[in-house]
Design a protein that fits this description.
By secondary structure, this protein is of the alpha/beta class. 42% of the residues lie in helices and 28% in strands. The chain has one domain. The protein has a 5-stranded mixed sheet. Strands 6-5-4-8 form a 4-stranded mixed sheet, with no helix packed on it.
């Protein structure tokens, strides 16, 4: 019996280790690393609970909150922009998450490019998708100011960006969220989050 229990434990540890290995690339260097504070919490919520709508780490930093996620796709069906929207008692903040390193260049209008090792390529303008996100959230967070920002990996060069929207490295996002001082009733915050989930489920 003892050998069976040991074998089961070994198998369980092996499976969990493999799942942790699979999930790590989605965490490393991303905004999730800042929102969840540690890979242990991210892994537990992502793999075991299958629910990334709350973060114990973020709760310590900004108080009661919920995290909502959505993405936009281009005409060819390729994912063009991903967002995390933070609903909290401090207000609402929707952040476009841009992955990848390099020197970015762009502004509120026109095309964007990124220079990676001397090779300059076009990239999707996050500002275009911020405006689409605003249309989505206008009907949800009524009467509450929503902040919009763009987050890049810490190694990205942002000196070529000139935008009226806040642009920042991932490591600066939690401080940005902490600067919001709007007071929102927790029940109203949760209602807005549930409305967001409903719209996301219906593909609106």
């Amino acid at each position: 019996m003892g050998e069976l229990v040991t074998a089961i434990c070994v198998v369980f540890i092996g499976i969990m280790g493999f799942k942790a290995y699979q999930a790590y690339p989605s965490y490393r260097g991303s905004l999730y690393q800042e929102l969840f504070g540690s890979y242990a919490e991210y892994f537990w919520r992502f793999t075991m609970k299958r629910d990334l709508s709350e973060s114990s780490y973020l709760n310590e930093k900004i108080g009661p909150h919920r995290l909502g996620y959505n993405a936009y796709f281009d005409g060819s069906g390729k994912q063009a922009a991903t967002f995390v929207t933070v609903f909290s008692t401090r207000g609402v903040a929707s952040i476009c998450m841009v992955g990848g390193v390099g020197a970015y260049r762009g502004g509120d209008t026109g095309s964007w490019t990124v220079d990676r090792g001397g090779k300059v390529v076009a990239c999707a303008s996050p500002i275009v998708y911020l405006r689409r996100q605003k249309k989505l959230l206008d009907g949800i967070a009524r009467g509450v100011r929503v902040g919009y920002a763009v987050s890049f990996e810490d190694a990205a060069d942002l000196s070529g960006i000139d935008s009226s929207y806040p642009v920042m490295h991932a490591s600066e996002v939690v401080s940005y969220l902490g600067e919001h001082d709007v007071s929102v009733d927790e029940a109203a915050m949760l209602e807005a989050f549930e409305s967001f989930k409903g719209m996301a489920r219906n593909g609106q």
